[in-house]
Amino acid sequence: MKIRNITIGIFIIFILGCFKKAENPDPNIVLEIEKEIEKLKTNDDKKAFLEKVLKDDQKVRDGSDAAIIQEFGYDSKEHLEHTKIMWKQDEINVIKIEKYLEKFPYPKKTELGDDAAMAPWLVIHHSSNIGLRNKYFEILYQAYLDQNIDDGGFSLYLGRTYDFTFGERLKMKNPFRPEDEINALIKALGLEERKEKIIK
């Protein structure tokens, strides 16, 4: 048991290291991504870029994580290595989405398609950086109002933000509508004032 606790401690230290890496990305990677963004001239370019981001996001979440845990254990070196790969990809994806949203508005489903519109919110949703998640609330909420993010997606994003902030899921009494949960999460996260500025 003692050895297992030590190994879990190492895993936690590794995860914290990933947080630091995400906050201080490689300048060369950032520069390459900025060059890539500059080349996006048409809707087809933007669509292809965002669909690739989504594909990369999902490629490291193909179910192999569960298989690795089942075969080697949660605190195994194999699981640590897989987690390292996922965090590195997430770091790159976050930079790509941040740079994209600095230059372009949130993608519209009617212009770029469902997958392209899904990429930004899903990448942000997969980040455990609370500051990053809160930073993009206005953009994501407006995209939700414009129906470029569906109820389920926006609720997931808010729900995980609540989880990271308070260490638990928001409890609600059934029955409730998706919009009820969204409004409750916005209130619980102290985002009501920012929400009101958008809808005015």
In words, what does this structure look like?
With 200 residues, the protein is an all-alpha fold. Helices cover 76% and strands 0% of the residues. It contains twelve helices and no strands. Helix 4 (64-72) packs antiparallel against helix 5 (77-103) and helix 7 packs parallel to helix 10 (151-166). The protein is globular, with a radius of gyration of 18 Å.
* Helical proportion, percent range: over 70%
Radius of gyration: 18 Å
Strand content: under 5%
Largest sheet composition:
none
- How many alpha or pi helices? 12
**Large-scale geometry:** globular
Gap between N and C termini: 57 Å
Mean pLDDT reading = 88
Class from secondary-structure proportions: mainly alpha
Element pattern in H and E = HHHHHHHHHHHH
Low-confidence stretches: 1-22
Strand segment count: 0
Write the layout of secondary structure elements.
Elements: H1 2-23, H2 27-38, H3 43-59, H4 64-72, H5 77-103, H6 109-112, H7 114-125, H8 130-135, H9 137-145, H10 151-166, H11 178-188, H12 192-199
Task: Considering the chains and any ligands shown, give keywords for the structure.
single chain; 200 residues; mainly alpha; 76% helix; globular; disordered N terminus
Short description:
This protein is mostly helical and about 200 residues long. The chain contains twelve helices and no strands.
